[in-house]
Each structure stands twice: as structure tokens, then as C-alpha cells.
Specification:
globular; 117 residues; five-stranded mixed β-sheet; binds zinc ion
Length: 117
């Protein structure tokens, strides 16, 4: 369940790992606002802590008029756990949805090839 006492903006996420397992997440806010973690990254961290290293798709859902796409930080993390064709589904509670690939949302990601060594 989303913990969004400050923004009141509740977001949920679900990801499908390459091994077929489903992981869910919600946004978790902090009184020190910058520590807030988005639903997508909570789902990714839960999956990663369970040993997942590749995901097939991730969905993000919020009670918004238009489907809300992942923020830049989440796009970065999704790209690291996905592949170019990894699907990102944005949806609202009315079932309106948009499907992107992570490559469309983050065409030039920062990846390990830029790291030294
Ligand atoms: Zn985010």
C-alpha cells in the first residue's frame, strides 16, 4: 500500500521478472522529501533483493486522468534491469493505458560501459 502522506499521490507498480515471478511496489514517501522512493523502484528493489537481475516488463498505475509514465530515475533503473524491448506499461484506474519500450522512454541510458575499468 502506498505511503504518500505528503503528496497524497498514490502509485502502484508491478513487474514481471525474466523468471516469470511477479513483484509489486508502491511509492514510499519520507518527511525528508528527497528520500521518497517511487513505486517502480520499490518493485525493482524488492525483485533485486530476491535475486532478480532481468525483467520482462513493468507496469505503473496511478489515479490520474492520463496514464503516468515513470520518472527519469526510474527509467534509468528499469533500463539497467531490462533490455531495449522491455515493456513499460502506464495505466490509470480507469484502465486507460499506454505501452512503451524502455528504449523509447530512455533512448540514451547511462550504462556500465561508461564506468572505468
Ligand atoms: Zn520514479
Amino acid at each position: 500500500l502506498a505511503h504518500a502522506p505528503y503528496s497524497k499521490f498514490k502509485v502502484g507498480a508491478a513487474l514481471l521478472a525474466a523468471d516469470g515471478q511477479l513483484y509489486t511496489g508502491c511509492n514510499v514517501e519520507s518527511a525528508s522529501y528527497s528520500l521518497t522512493v517511487c513505486a517502480e523502484r520499490v518493485a525493482l528493489l524488492k525483485a533485486a533483493s530476491s535475486g532478480v537481475r532481468k525483467i520482462k516488463s513493468i507496469a505503473v498505475v496511478a489515479d490520474t486522468e492520463e496514464p503516468v509514465p515513470p520518472c527519469g530515475a526510474c527509467r534509468q533503473m528499469i533500463s539497467e534491469f531490462g533490455e531495449e524491448g522491455t515493456e513499460v506499461i502506464s495505466a490509470n484506474l480507469q484502465g486507460k493505458a499506454q505501452v512503451f519500450t524502455i528504449k523509447e522512454l530512455l533512448p540514451t541510458p547511462f550504462d556500465p560501459s561508461f564506468l572505468p575499468g
